[in-house]
Design brief:
Blueprint lengths: L5 H5 L1 H30 L1 H18 L1 E3 L5 E4 L3 H9 L4 E6 L5 E4 L7 H6 L9 E3 L4 E10 L4 E9 H53 L20 H45 L5 H24 L8 E4 H11 L1 H6 L2 E4 L6 E6 L1 H18 L4 E8 L2 E5 L31 H12 L2 E6 L6 E6 L4 E3 L1
Parallel strand pairs: 9-11
Antiparallel strand pairs: 1-2, 3-4, 3-7, 5-6, 6-7, 8-10, 10-15, 11-12, 12-14, 13-14
Length: about 450
């Protein structure tokens, strides 16, 4: 079955449901039509059987006197109603072996000719005709000890056709209702079955969506999944293994390169400080910038590896005050004042203290570099959020989407770095399950960086 709607084509549950229900309805309809054709084809034989069954019912209803002579007929209710209600289409009589009529149904002018022509014991199933109707006649014997009697039942083809038409309509209604009920029950059953069968696949998809660069060691468990999907899951896990290996090699190279560059840069700086060459100060500034970039590369490599973190109960506000004290000289050089929460404030949470220090240092340092002279960088707690706000020019709209990308820098002129400070902050926040965001302050100028720590507890 082909589906034109692209959403249906992509939905396995809908495809299986529609295909199964459609096949079931088609099968039931085919069976119904087959039964209808067979019933129509065998209508003649069924009509003869019906007339003969009626004759047998009449024979069983005959009452005899003590001498064994038939004197009355105690008809079943359905036959009595048929003979009373349809006198033109049905009649019966009881005859002796000579053909003399002993008992007959109520006289009917329309059946006079047929009754007159029912002489002697006719053959079973003989079709008798009168001027208007065709009649089907059945004769059954009643054997008694001293004589044999005969019951003759005559039924018009018109009555048989009416019954057949009614049966056909009833059969059609039964087929339609059966199709609808079967489709409903089958649809509910297959929906529940598919939901149960596809649940492991949904669980595997959820597990796959949670795999990131920080947990590349995770794998998808193929045990609960159908065997047909095992090769796909095995290939996916194998791809994850290769990706993890490549990522580890990249991170190890980054950390090793950064570590190996620290010593040569320190030696070069010492040589320049001891020498008396032109542009000595400019060279020292370049060396300091390179050292800062190497230091950030090392921090980035460490922040990207979750196993490097040691999570323990910490007071985030105490760490924040240590960062403010650490950056006081930098703030003085830029003529910027840092406004921090009081020491009596406590924000308790589980975190890696060193990573938290790096996160806060990079954010406040970034605010100092972008703040104008004689301005204030405000750091304060708001519920479970830490807000760091400067009074600088703010963030350009085009820079907002790239703010936390690696190696991207706004190049403001106040500093030129490798563009890794905010990337390191993002990696640390993700490793802790925190949310790091930035926006422009309003209505006053400046930018606001927010670190949301949902598991923390503020005490003032």
């Amino acid at each position: 079955m082909r589906f034109k709607n692209p959403k249906v084509r992509r939905n396995l549950t809908v495809q299986l449901l529609l295909a199964s229900v459609g096949g079931l309805v088609a099968a039931i309809a085919l069976v119904g039509m087959t039964v209808a054709v067979l019933l129509d084809w065998q209508s003649s034989a069924l009509a003869e059987i019906g007339v003969r069954d009626n004759a047998l019912d009449i024979a069983a209803s005959v009452k005899f006197d003590p001498s064994g002579y038939p004197v009355a007929v105690d008809l079943p209710d359905d036959l009595e109603k048929m003979f009373d209600g349809l006198p033109k289409d049905a009649t019966f009589r009881i005859l002796d072996a000579t053909g003399a009529v002993l008992i007959t149904a109520a006289p009917s002018p329309a059946l006079t000719t047929i009754t007159a022509r029912m002489t002697g014991p006719p053959e079973v199933g003989t079709l008798l005709l009168d001027d208007d109707f065709a009649f089907r006649v059945a004769t059954v014997p009643i054997d008694r000890a001293h004589a044999t009697f005969y019951v003759q039942m005559a039924q018009s083809e018109r009555l048989t056709s009416m019954v057949r038409l009614t049966d056909s309509k009833t059969a059609l209604q039964v087929v339609i209702i059966t199709c609808l009920l079967a489709a409903l029950v089958f649809g509910v059953a297959i929906t529940l079955t598919l939901k149960r069968m596809l649940q492991p696949l949904l669980d595997a998809s959820t597990a796959a969506s949670q795999i990131s660069a920080r947990n590349l060691s995770e794998r998808i468990d193929a045990a609960p999944l159908p065997q047909e999907l095992s090769p796909l899951i095995a290939a996916f896990n194998s791809a994850l293994g290769r990706l993890e290996t490549g990522y580890r090699v990249q991170q190890d190279f980054l950390a090793a390169a950064a570590h190996e560059l620290k010593t040569p840069l320190a030696l070069v700086r010492a040589e320049i400080e001891l020498s008396d060459i032109p542009a000595r100060e400019a060279l020292l500034q370049d060396i300091d910038l390179m050292s800062r970039q190497v230091h950030q590369l090392l921090h980035l490599a460490e922040a990207s590896e979750t196993h490097n973190y040691v999570f323990e109960p910490s007071d985030a506000n105490a760490v924040l005050l240590d960062v403010v004290q650490y950056l006081e000289r930098l703030a003085e050089r830029h003529e910027v004042r840092i406004e921090a929460p009081p020491a009596s404030t406590s924000f308790e949470l589980v975190a890696d203290r060193g990573a938290l220090f790096t996160l806060l240092k990079n954010l406040i340092e970034n605010a100092i570099h972008h703040a104008p002279s004689h301005s204030v960088v405000v750091v304060h707690w708001s519920g479970k959020k830490l807000l760091i706000q400067d009074e600088g020019p703010g963030i350009a709209p085009g820079s907002m989407p790239k703010l936390f990308d690696r190696f991207w820098s706004g190049k403001t002129g106040a500093q030129e770095g490798a563009g890794l400070g905010l990337s390191i902050c993002k990696e640390i926040a993700l490793a802790h399950g925190w949310t790091l965001s930035a926006q422009n302050a309003s209505p006053q100028p400046g930018a606001v960086f927010t670190v949301e720590m949902p598991r923390g507890k503020l005490k003032e």
